[in-house]
Design brief:
The structure is a single chain. This protein is an alpha/beta fold. It folds into two domains: 148 residues, 2-Layer Sandwich (Nucleotidyltransferase, domain 5), CATH 3.30.420; 92 residues, Nucleotidyltransferase, domain 5 (2-Layer Sandwich). The protein has eight helices and 14 strands. The strands form three sheets. A six-stranded mixed sheet has the order 1-4-3-2-5-9. A hairpin with a 2-residue loop joins strand 11 and strand 12. Helix 2 runs parallel beside helix 4 and helix 6 packs parallel to helix 7. It is globular, with a radius of gyration of 19 Å. The chain starts with a strand and ends in a 6-residue tail after the last helix.
């Protein structure tokens, strides 16, 4: 196996047949420091495998990895993996970065997509602009991704379609509120040096944005700033933490100091999964797992 990636956690159910990958779907999340995936059976949607990999810390310490370099490492990993590069019934790739914005469907013009994104931030050199339609939101997610990623992903994983991770995060959040009948909810998903935050009311998106942070104090500053701007009451409005964050961690601890209702969501009952998933907290792999129920 390629030594450039370190396995953090992972398992595959014994029933998985690597010679019959067309009987399964796979959803992969590509982020700046690694990737993760979830496997599901085609016939009933049962979750049968997951894994999370991070780039070797020695590589990250020695250089600021550019998108092309990450793609080379990922391509090498896939090509040396026993089944990851085989064709699946459905292969979906979620791309995680901060170059994303939302445009309501009535205002959207395909010919102006670069303009929408440039209004918020400059498009990096070597990147192209793509779009996702968010059916429940009736809006378009406009985002940038490296040109070579768009070219190589379908070659590395036959038939793979890419979408932005924010699209999955938002659609999953709307579904989460609808399934659990939450009148309102704030969802926060921390990353290594930035986090995304969304506010939902009556199962509809009201606010979404990302914020760069370097310390827990930066983190809580932005969270409370959003609460103030949206006139949310930290004594009443519930916050749900998702992704790679643990109870008692610095971010969780500082959040509970200022927000009364802080929780971690459980895995949706609408899905079934192999018993190994019971060892993984329900909020981890949130976007990957909830996206199995979305139309993206």
């Amino acid at each position: 196996m390629n030594g450039k990636f370190v396995l953090n956690q992972g398992f595959t159910d014994k029933s998985f047949d690597a010679f019959r990958t067309l009987d399964y779907s796979i959803t992969i999340l590509l982020r700046e420091d690694g990737f993760s995936y979830v496997l599901a059976q085609k016939v009933d949607g049962k979750l049968v495998g997951l894994a999370d990999y991070t780039l070797d810390s020695r590589i990250q310490a020695n250089t600021t990895l550019k998108a092309e370099n990450f793609l080379k490492q990922f391509a090498s990993f896939v090509m040396n993996h026993p089944w990851l590069g085989k064709p699946f019934d459905r292969a979906k790739v979620l791309i995680s970065n901060r170059w994303v914005t939302l445009v309501p469907a009535p205002l959207f013009d395909e010919n102006q997509k670069e303009l929408y994104l440039n209004f918020n931030f400059p498009i990096p050199a070597g990147f192209v602009v793509a779009v996702d339609y968010l059916t429940d939101l009736e809006a378009w997610s406009v985002y940038a991704l490296p040109l070579e990623w768009g070219k190589q992903i379908p070659l590395l994983m036959p038939g793979a379609q890419h979408t932005h991770a924010a699209s999955a995060f938002i659609e999953s959040g709307m579904l989460f509120c609808r399934i659990n009948r939450h009148a309102e909810a704030v969802l926060i998903q921390p990353g290594r040096d930035w986090f995304e935050m969304a506010y939902f009311a009556r199962s509809s998106l009201v606010f979404y944005n990302t914020f760069h942070y370097q310390s827990p104090e930066d983190f809580i500053y932005f969270v409370l700033f959003v609460f103030e701007q949206l006139n949310l009451n930290p004594e009443i409005t519930p916050v749900w933490l998702v992704g790679d964050i643990e109870e008692g961690s610095p971010l969780h601890s500082i959040l509970t100091r200022y927000i009364r209702k802080v929780s971690f969501p459980t895995r949706p009952d609408h899905l079934t999964w192999t018993y190994e998933f019971n060892e993984v907290p329900g909020h981890v792999f949130y976007s990957l797992i909830y996206s199995q129920l979305c139309e993206l």
